Every structure is written in structure tokens, then in C-alpha cells.
Amino acid sequence: MYSSTARIFSAGIFYSLIIFTNQKYTPDWDSLDKRSLPSWYDESKIGIFIHWGVFSVPSFRSEWMWYSWKGDNPNPETVAFMEKNYPPDWTYADFAEQFRAEFFDPYEWADILEASGAKYVVLTSKHHEGFTLWPSKYSFNWNAMDVGPKRDLVGDLADAIRNRTNITFGLYHSLYEWFHPLFLEDKKNEFKTRYFPTMKTIPELYEIVEKYKPAVIWSDGDWDAQDTYWNSTGFLAWLYNESPVKDIVVVNDRWGSGIMCKHGDFYTCSDHYNPGHLVTHKWENCFTIDKNSWGFRRSAKFSDYISIEELLKELVITISTGGNVLINVGPTAYGKIAPIFEERLRQMGSWLKVNGEAIYHSVPWKYQNDTINSNVWYTASKDGQSVYACLLVWPNSTSEINLGAPVTSASTTVSLLGSSGGPLNWRSGGASGGIVIDVSSVKIYSLASDWTWVFKMQNIRSSKATVVDKEDYENY
């Protein structure tokens, strides 16, 4: 990981909580970038990504199966799979009839998502294959109402989430489609024509916003053409000024080639983005439970799935360094969240019930990673009264936890979340600071959480001020 001593910023400096005004945004990045981040997004910390579509039927290799079969550089393994298992005249469109979602119960999904402890969900309304999970007027006979499930999957899940939970509903949408004739025509014309965004992409975006009112628009498929081709700033100006979600919506940074990690309410920068140090703009780490795919894979082995320990490590490091996590699951074509995904989500939820105060509404502390203990990452309460040390690995050979970053005082108290044993004994680490926490009284087998333990410390400080002032921030 990176430097453990990166400094943080006060909540009001690191990113602004939203202040609603009558400001009108113009369709340019200078104006759009001045919009404050709606506070709900940062406070939520944890979202669930759901990759679901026709690709869930072959469920081979990944959600890019069609492109790996028929794209510019076909994957030999995918070609061999199709030749062995399907007739010569089989097309990708034939898979759509088998995408039936016959066991899809949106309320069951809502219950699983609620149990995970996540505060928002992002469903793929349309991936690069172009199949829309809602009855789009702009995707005739290539949508979930006309073929396959014969139902509005987006609307069904949105209703269940809103009726059953307090989770915020969001949608992923791909700007481009691999094989759409209008997109291929524009591409052949070096994107000097704009048939595809004018007739397909932008109308779809307006449609899902007005129909489903998502609080997250997670854009993707942006890399071939510039944002001017997509008219991204024009759409976002409408989204921020006039749309039914103008006061709460957040968008990511994938709105055209060269835009990623430069513009947007939050940055993704890349899939699985986790820099390991503090980032000055709000960001999100989207990652998969299946190490090799965003969509469901029938061929996946147990070792292909991250463990709960790995998941929590990713979560803790991300939150410590100012990001949100968006944790992906890939449902089956028949509409079930596979047990391995459900188990990970419920395990995370049980951990958050014990340790959530160190995660939700938290802010980064002066230090992110401890200065002497690489297995410890910090968060802090917004009021600065509590600092949380998240211990990824419990020591086997000692009854003491040594931390280098905190500076103690006579009134310092330390407790372990999930323990009923009361305050823990501690001693100063020495003249240079630090603390040594005595855990000899802790019976780890009796704790409410089995992974990643959180020590709550009060009346401590770091070797410098807990938050930096504006001048320090500008010089960071």
C-alpha cells in the first residue's frame, strides 16, 4: 500500500455537503464540476452493483461473452465453446428467449440487499449488448418486455427496493453498444456523425430518469468517442437543472474518452480502483465478488470468489481513504442471486451491524494506514470525538495491539466494538506517541464479529492536528 501518513481534510473541505441553491448549470464541465456532492452518497459508503442481462444465459467467461465471440478479435475459447454446444446458425439474439428470469422475486432480492447493510444499489439497465431490462421505446424487440422475461425488470426491482427497504435505487447504463448498426456507422465515420446518441443513447437516458427516477446514473461504454459525441454535458445540465432527481442524483466519471477521473460527482478511474491513499475528490471502488467476471459464470470455482476477509479488507481501506465501495454480484438467467453471493452479502451485513459506526457517516482521519501496523486502517467520526482503528488480522503471538499513529492523553478510552467486556487497558507507546492496547481480556471466540475488528478510541489525537486547515489542504 501507499504512504500511511497522508493527511486528511475536514469534512467541509474534502467534499462539500450539498447546499441547494437556484444555481443553473450550463452544459460545460467548468459549470457542472461546481455542483456540490449530495450528502446522502458519501454517508452511504456501501452500494451493491448488479450485472444482469442476456449474457447471464450463456454465462461463459464474462458479461463480454458476445464481443469475445463476434468482436474484432474473437477469443478462441469462446468460439470453441459455441461451436461445441450450439448449432452453427445460432445467434446471440437466440439467447434472449432463454433469459426468462422465471425465479426472479424482486422482494427476495430487496431482502438480501437490505441484509447486506448496503445503502444504495445500482442495476444494469442496459449493458454493452444493448438489451434493456425495461420496455424501452428505443429498443424494439430487444428488451425484457418484448422477449425473454416479458416483464419490466427495472421497474419491478425499483418498486421492491422502495417499498421494502430504505436503500437508494440507481441505474447503470452503457452509452455504446457493440454491434448496433447506428453506432457502427458513426464509428466508421470517425464519430463525425451522431446518429446513435441522437436516436438511441440520449433518448434512453431521458427515459430511465423520467420513468424510474434513479438517484445514481452510472455511465459506462464511453471510451471510443469523446463526450461531445455523446452530448454528455447537455444531458447532465438537464439532469442537474430540470430532471425529477436534480437535487439528489449523482453520476460517475464515464461520459466520453478522456473524461474518466476528471469530471463527475464521483470518480471511478478504473474498475477495481483502490489507490490505497487519500484521494481529494470523492471516488468509488467498484469491485466483484467473482474475481473474473461481473456477470454470473456457470464455470466458476469456489476459489474464484473473494472471501469475506478479502471483501472487508477492500471495504475498510476504501472507506479509510475517502471512497465508497460498490460491490458486484451477477444473478443467474433464471433470476436468483447465487448462494455464494448471498452469503458474502449477509456476512458483510452482520459485520456492519457490529461495526457500522466506524463506516457510515465516517470521515478519513489524519492517518489512513497506521505508521507501524500495516494491518490497521483508520476512520473517524464527523465530530472528531471518536477514531476507529480497523484491525484486519488478529495477532496470534501477543496479547497487545501496537499502534503508532494515535497520541494518548490521561482521558483516553479504548473499547472493542462487539465486545461486552468494557473499556480496554492501554499504555502509551512512548515519547514519540503511539498506544499499546491490552487485549489479554478479550475472548475472540465470543466476539460478535469474526473478522476485521474495530477499536474505538476517544480523547486521542495524532502527532499533528486531526484535520488540516484550508492552507494546508491547498498545499497538500
TrEMBL record:
SUPFAM superfamilies: (Trans)glycosidases. Residues 368-458 form the Alpha-L-fucosidase C-terminal domain. Residues 21-357 form the Glycoside hydrolase family 29 N-terminal domain. The keyword Glycoprotein applies. One of its GO terms (cellular component) is lysosome. It catalyses: a neolactoside IV(2)-alpha-Fuc-nLc4Cer(d18:0) + H2O = a neolactoside nLc4Cer(d18:0) + L-fucose; a neolactoside IV(2)-alpha-Fuc-nLc4Cer(d18:1(4E)) + H2O = a neolactoside nLc4Cer(d18:1(4E)) + L-fucose. The record marks 286 as: May be important for catalysis. It holds the Pfam family Alpha_L_fucos. It comes from the Eukaryota. Signal peptide: none annotated. Keywords: Glycoprotein, Glycosidase, Hydrolase, Signal. GO terms for biological process: fucose metabolic process; glycoside catabolic process. GO terms for molecular function: alpha-L-fucosidase activity. The keyword Signal applies. Its EC number is 3.2.1.51. PROSITE patterns: ALPHA_L_FUCOSIDASE. It is an enzyme of class 3 (hydrolase). Alpha-L-fucosidase is responsible for hydrolyzing the alpha-1,6-linked fucose joined to the reducing-end N-acetylglucosamine of the carbohydrate moieties of glycoproteins. Belongs to the glycosyl hydrolase 29 family. This is alpha-L-fucosidase. The lineage of its organism: Eukaryota, Metazoa, Spiralia, Gnathifera, Rotifera.
